[in-house]
Amino acid sequence: MFQGLSSAPPDAILGLTEAFKKDTNPNKINLGVGVYKDEEGRTPILHCVKEAEQRLVDEETTKSYMPMGGAPEYAQAVQSLLLGEAYAGAGRVRTAHTPGGTGGLRVGAESIHLFAPQASIWLSTPTWANHRAVFSAAGLPIREYPYYDPATKGVEIDALLESLQGVPAGDVVLLHVCCHNPTGVDLNVTQWRQVAAIAAERGWTPFLDFAYQGFGEGLVEDAAGLAPFLETGIEMWIASSFSKNFGLYCERTGAVTLVAADANAAETAFGHVELLIRRNYSNPPAHGGRIVTTVLGDDRLRGVWLEELSGMRERVRSIRAAFAEGLRQRGVERDFSFIQAQRGMFSFSGLNDAQVDRLRAEYGIYIVKGGRINVAGVTTRNLDYLCDAIAAVL
Ligand code: LMR
Questions:
Q1: 384 lies in which domain range?
Q2: Cα–Cα dist 235/169, whole Å
Q3: Which residue's CA is minimally distant from atom 1 of ligand 1?
Q4: Do 278 and 345 fall within a single domain?
């Protein structure tokens, strides 16, 4: 069965990391995958995480299986962060611990295909390179709605609203709650209200991808897009992740949350979600979830986490300013001030694919096709080299 297969194409994002590792250029920089780096270029383990892990090593008494949907205290912690105390623990909300946010998207996608076999998923143009693949693999036809306007470097709000007005009832629309990947450009609260009102009126279901909570403005501010949907009372899905805000990338600590019309519907739907999980990976890996519940359940550790999270957010914010200034100083004609206005880990640079290829071949600088730069990987040490290289390819 393995004979005669054609090679699998490299992954648009993780494939870059593989190529980067093989690159012998001593100045190489990986600005592909969305991973935070500190000023020394390391992806640190947060202090709160280290301390929680130590506690787990000392106190954990069993490695027995988790429930299919994960531990109830993890679900509670996820809901509190995402939804706030007003909605956390409500009967119409159920959460499963999944292997990362990607696992949450896939479990949600398979559930949608089971519950609503006719449903298409609508993705923003552009969107995270893996969205299309995850939803297609679960059998959902893909549709697209306009999102980013390269001319204004902002959201194409009129075209977006018009397109969402035309989404058929029963379809599902994927929306990035904050730090839109890849553009770094988000909806404001007024626009979220407009989108939620359209969803309620037209009868489509939002699927909210919330992978960067805390990397935009702050934990609560970044969740502002959720409230208008919750207030309408409509059904929805949320995929979330602790990869970025806890730095738990390899622990695959994410979740999928369903919000139904009432507790009965939520209970029934969640039973099917659990069965889908059972047929796939059976039950989630425990370690990352235990770290999160240990940190969030302890006032002191939670305080340490909030400080560390704000430290990461502020470093990215200040490097954005330095990056825009570095390009300006090199006299590049194009105005790159938008880098500062974009939020989260990414900057949609406007570099075309030929320029992206040159940065890689001539400078060992790896960014995603389409021009997405992981600003969280830029440091004061590699900034000059990066700005020189971009100025040269422009
Ligand atoms: C990214 O977009 O770089 C991250 O979400 C990591 C990934 O899995 O692609």
A1: 14-44+311-393
A2: 12
A3: 34
A4: no
Ligand 1 in reach of 241 Cβ (< 6 A): no
Residue 139 is given by DSSP the state T
Question: Measured at the alpha carbon of residue 302, what is the angle toward residues 300 and 308, in degrees to the nearest 5?
Answer: 110
218-251: pLDDT as tens digits: 999 999 999 999 999 999 999 999 999 999 999 9
Number of domains in the chain: 2
| CATH number of residue 186's parent domain | 3.40.640.10
Residues 355 and 233 in one domain: no
CA of 36 to the centre of ligand 1 (A): 11
Residue 257: strand pairing partners = 95, 238
Residues 266-316: pLDDT tens digits?
999 999 999 999 999 999 999 999 999 999 999 999 999 999 999 999 999
pLDDT in tens, 340-360: 999 999 999 889 999 999 999
Tell me the two tokens of residue 271.
Answer: 């039973």
Rounded Cα gap, residues 368 and 15, in angstroms: 10
Regarding the beta carbon of 105 and ligand 1, being less than 6 Å apart is answered no
What residues are labeled active site?
Answer: 128, 209, 244
State the pLDDT confidence band at 182, using cuts at 50, 70 and 90: very high
370 and 248 in a common domain? no
Ligand 1 center to residue 197 CA distance, Å?
30
Tell how far the Cα of 368 is from the centroid of ligand 1, in angstroms.
10
142 CA to centre of ligand 1 in angstroms: 20
355 lines ligand 1 (CB under 6 A): no
Does the C-beta of 17 come closer than 6 Å to ligand 1? no
Is the confidence at residue 89, as pLDDT, over 90? no
Residue 309 tokens, joined: 């999270």
> Same domain, yes or no, for 19 and 139?
no
Note the Cα 218 to chain centre separation in Å: 15
Q: How high does pLDDT run on average in the chain? A: 96
Residue 58: inside a domain = no
Alpha-carbon distance 310 to 45, whole Å? 15
